[in-house]
Design goal:
The protein has two domains: 11-180, Jelly Rolls; 199-306, Arc Repressor Mutant, subunit A, CATH 1.10.10.60. Strands 1, 2, 3, 4, 5, 6, 7 and 8 form an eight-stranded antiparallel β-sheet that branches. By secondary structure, it is α+β, with helices and mostly antiparallel strands. Helix 8 (224-231) packs across helix 9. It has helices at residues 11-16, 113-120, 124-137, 145-158, 163-181, 189-195, 204-216, 224-231, 235-246, 250-268, 273-279, 285-296, 300-306; strands at 23-31, 36-44, 47-50, 56-74, 77-81, 87-90, 96-112, 140-141.
Length: 307
Amino acid sequence: MPTGTPHPRGIIEHFLGGSRSGLHVVESTIAGSHEVEFARVIQKNVTDQSHLDAERFVLGTTITPAIGKVHVDFGEKRRKLNATGNGFYLNPSENSWTHMDGEVDISFIDLPMRSLSDLLQIDEGSLIQGYRPLHDAVVMDDPLARPLALSIWQQARSGCRSADLYVDQALHTLALHLLSLARGDQRLRALDEGLAKPPAALSDPKLDRARDFIEANLALPIRVSDLARESGMSNSSFARAFKATTGEAAWAYVRRRRLETAMAELLNSQTPIAEIAFQTGFSSQAHLTSAFREYFGKPPGQVRSSG
């Protein structure tokens, strides 16, 4: 029987730490203020041992429907994996063997449960217990989880300067949504009570410091951890308080201010559009043009020519 590679540090090392026939890592990256690991892996006719445990949050999402049959073996519990086009699964809460007579293309999101605990402001033990019904379910279909997980993966691999903010905020939403899928379990009552408390608003001085930092650093990558540090708060506390105060997620506010600043430059200066893009934190003129058209309904060049 093949031997797997222990998984002490994350999904990237798990897949890259040893040679396995039939397993191909297409790409991998790290993003977000909690250094979330992402990997896209194609598995074909492979048997692999997973040493993932419940102290890590590892979400696998099928990019395309599986070809052939996939089986997961939890000791004496052997189950068929219905890896449909809408399929996703949370890492099993115990070591497992995966045997595949076919092919599956999966994207993975992985971070320690302690990091997710900080992001959600829910204690680690409660999270582990809360997710356990999903571990045991093995594979699930859900109309929200898969597209949201894939959008996080796409942002993480994009290299955009707002990617870290998007990863943090969208992962927060996805993690809470997955908890909601397990709400029939009695162990989640304490979580519900904790989440029912509305987040406190940011004080005016803290909000001003965050806004001042954003305006002074529009040309640079801005992370939730940067804004939280300026406000003297944890990442998750700041993210919730900022949205409660402004009505916008922090990443959305940063994106809006980049675009509004770009608009002002277009109308009030002759600065080349490519330079405006870099001054406002976009990776290229094409990146600015795409975001600008989506937000304002017209490209930068048309605004300048008609201004």
